[in-house]
Design a protein that fits this description.
Layout (H helix, E strand, L loop, with lengths): L8 E2 L12 H7 L6 E3 L5 E5 L2 H9 L3 E2 L28 H10 L4 H5 L2 H16 L4 E3 H18 L8 H9 L7 H24 L5 H10 L6 H32 L1 H9 L4 H11 L6 E6 L3 E3 L2 E3 L4 E4 L1 H4 L34 H18 L4 E2 L21 E3 L1
Parallel strand pairs: 1-2, 3-9
Antiparallel strand pairs: 2-3, 4-6, 5-11, 6-9, 7-8, 10-11
Helix pairs in contact: 5-6, 5-14, 6-10, 7-8, 7-10, 8-10, 9-10, 10-14, 12-14
């Protein structure tokens, strides 16, 4: 068991092209014990990259997210976490807040949204292809699909939906924007949701904003800070992740034409394909440290009480001990226990909605645009830099 001091590896690692994963993750995954990272802010942290280790840290109550609040812990983002949002809570507080909206995101209730999501995607694809043969898949399909879907669930008026995307992008920046700009973006998001709550107070509805408001006003289950934080988190995370996943998945398929043709020939395989693409295509960077509440062994390394563990889920999804031919896309995997949506208490609340959107959009594309291809060479596609999420900045396509 590793217990001594290790030389820390500077993080982030050197940038890699497109949606590739830095080779350091694979090297660390195949090396016994946990490596030590020198994070951009807050000092050193242990890194988990193996599937079993990541699941263990995500699920074991001896690791805390709440302990990270208001502390200068190892992290990728410049700002110290100070808001007790649902992503930074431990049970039982996390469970109390999550239950307010969990029912809306059950697989059964999300299935009721299928006709609306299908109509939404059909309309966007029709608009994207109307009288032309080129488009930006990010701006004309991925983003508007994701923004509209979560906005309709929450009850955000149509004429106000463009306001929050830029704020949420800036608020999740790792580098680029100044701390002042990040703070201002967060404040704008909070003010935006407070205004929506005030409007719903005057005009109640059956949307998620009204559900959250009732949990604060009528039931007393949420403080005002928790109410606003929950709404902002759902609004931001509910569209950014799905939009990046869809555009990233399409880019991956465009680079491997035989996989795209497989789906054109067999659209019934889209569901399995999306699960495999979720496993294979990286989405996020290392973030959201867990703090050990006591000495605990992880992957052969003794993590001392108070020390931080960060994780790379994308690396865990390429673990050769769990996935045969892990570095290859295989739509026919008999078992695919990927953790693209996390694991444990913080498993992504919106996973059923994201799956519905991704599978609906991919089915529409393979059926309606079978000749879809990149409109520029793959190495000319511009990818996002400096944020929590990875994905194409734009994705020029033609057909």
């Amino acid at each position: 068991m590793t217990t001594g001091e290790l030389t820390a590896c500077p993080y982030p690692f050197p940038e890699v092209p497109a949606l590739e994963l830095a080779p350091e993750y694979g090297e660390f995954r195949r090396t016994p014990g946990l490596p030590r990272l020198e994070m951009p802010y807050g000092g050193q942290a242990w890194l988990a990259t193996r599937h079993a280790d990541v699941k263990f840290v995500l699920a074991d109550p001896r690791f805390s997210r709440a302990a990270a609040l208001n502390k200068d812990i190892p992290r990728t983002m410049p700002m110290v976490e100070s808001t007790p949002n649902i992503l930074a809570m431990d049970p039982p507080n996390h469970s109390r807040v999550r239950r307010v909206v969990a029912k809306a995101f059950t697989a059964r209730n999300i299935e009721l949204l299928r006709p609306r999501v299908e109509a939404l995607v059909d309309g966007l694809v029709a608009g994207m292809t109307d009288g032309k043969n080129t488009a930006d898949l990010v701006d004309e399909l991925a983003l508007p699909m994701a923004i509209t879907a979560i906005s309709e669930m929450l009850g955000v008026p149509e004429d106000e939906r463009d306001e929050f995307h830029d704020w949420s992008t800036t608020a999740a920046a790792i580098k680029g924007p100044s701390i002042e700009e990040i703070v201002a973006a967060n404040e704008s998001l909070w003010a935006f949701f407070r205004r929506l709550v005030a409007e719903r107070t005057q005009r109640p509805s059956d949307d998620l904003i009204s559900t959250i408001l009732a949990a604060h006003d009528a039931e007393g289950r949420l403080t005002e800070e928790e109410m606003v934080s929950l709404g902002v988190t759902i609004l931001s995370a509910g569209h950014e992740t799905t939009a990046n996943q869809l555009s990233g998945h399409v880019f991956t398929l465009m680079a491997q034409r035989e996989l795209w043709q497989r789906l054109v020939d067999r659209p019934q395989d889209v569901s399995d394909a999306v699960e495999e693409l979720l496993r294979f295509t990286p989405l996020g960077v290392v973030t959201f440290a867990r703090i050990a509440k006591e000495d605990i062994e992880v992957g052969g390394t003794l993590v001392r009480a108070g020390e931080s563990v960060v994780m790379q889920v994308a690396a865990a999804n390429l673990d050769e001990e769990v996935f045969a031919d892990a570095d290859k896309i295989d739509f026919d995997r008999e078992s695919n226990p990927h953790i693209a949506f996390g694991h444990g208490a913080h498993h992504c609340l919106g996973a059923p909605l994201a799956r519905l959107e991704l599978k609906t959009a991919m089915t529409a594309l393979v059926r309606k645009l079978p000749t879809l291809r990149l409109a520029v060479p793959a190495d000319e596609v511009v990818f996002k830099q400096g944020g929590l999420l990875r994905g194409p900045e734009s994705l020029p396509v033609t057909w």
